[in-house]
Amino acid sequence: MENIQMVDLKGQYEKIKAHIDNAVIECIASANFINGPHVKSFTRALEAYLDGASVVPCANGTDALQIAMMALDLQPGDEVIVPSFTYVATAEVIGLLRLTPVMVDVDPETFNITADLIEQAITPKTKAVVPVHLFGQCADMDAIMKVARKYNLYVIEDTAQAIGAIYTFPDGKTAKAGTIGDIGCTSFFPSKNLGCYGDGGAIYTKNTALANKINVIANHGQTKKYVHKYIGVNSRLDSIQAAILEIKLSYLDAYTSARQIAAFRYNEMLADVKEIITPTLVPYSTHVYHQYTLKVKNDLRNSLKEHLEAEGIPAMVYYPIPLYKQEAYTSISSISGSLAATEYLCSSVLSLPIHTELTEKQQHRIVNAIKSFYKKI
Ligand SMILES: *Cc1c(COP(=O)(O)O)cnc(C)c1O
Fold first, then answer.
1. Could you count the other beta carbons within 10 Å of the beta carbon of residue 254?
2. What is the pLDDT of residues 223-232, one digit of tens each?
């Protein structure tokens, strides 16, 4: 039987192989490994894709978040509001910079942080908030920006899972994920919606002065050769990865459509399975389905996962342990209010395979395996 994977990077590569292979060989032959021409051309292409926001490429999504916070001059002890239901990187860089992560709950319907939950967590020390557009759908940025402006907070969007998602403001205007707050951060980790063949990341901002500072910080704080204005980091996107990303960016919208078609098909196929809840679609954002994440009722998540695995179908739990319960974070973070939704989600979410190569036939197999689980119990 055909092997089903969470993400089929090999299948995706096969379809663009000739193009990619040429670009990689060209990079190697030119020996322009660092800051080669593709780094510039990919950066310009991503800026165009993001409707003119400035882009600074860097080594990975975690660095993107760290550099963003360094550029905003946040000081030790400043509080940064983050969702307690997210990937660790979001809180990690806050801790590294000796800032205080303030963990707030998420809306169990959307998996995202809300303006109300943010407002309740604000103290005189709060300096920034990091909305994470989890699983590929934007948090409600209009409401979040209003709270942030009211309290004079920076907004750093963690858009590692939502590149290409489109947010619609109440007046009908639209913006790409990551271009609404002060800074947007993304990752090109291979399995992300725009993934390279190694590590990569980028920082976006519409503020050109800030973009310059971010660029300097990502390059050893160097304003001119051997002149260092800030303590920076060494965080670069290498030329080979940029060449690959430049090609893959031209397919991003098609990749997004493929994910959406697969997700809508799951929604239909699973509509009559009452024991699971399919992902909510909000009116203010498209969903780029970095993950297709179910909520499994009646405490059966782990048994359903085991059943699927026994049938040769991978399924993953993003994320099994709330951040504030992680040993590294319990003593440095502060908690705002109840984190009941995070607790509930950690014990009930299950992500099904979703990727650009997923076929209807594979989805039938996956859904049949889910249905057979509920027949069996
Ligand atoms: C992947 C991811 C990151 C980190 O990106 P890396 O490139 O792996 O460093 C940060 N935040 C979220 C929400 C992610 O999914």
1. 10
2. 999 999 999 9
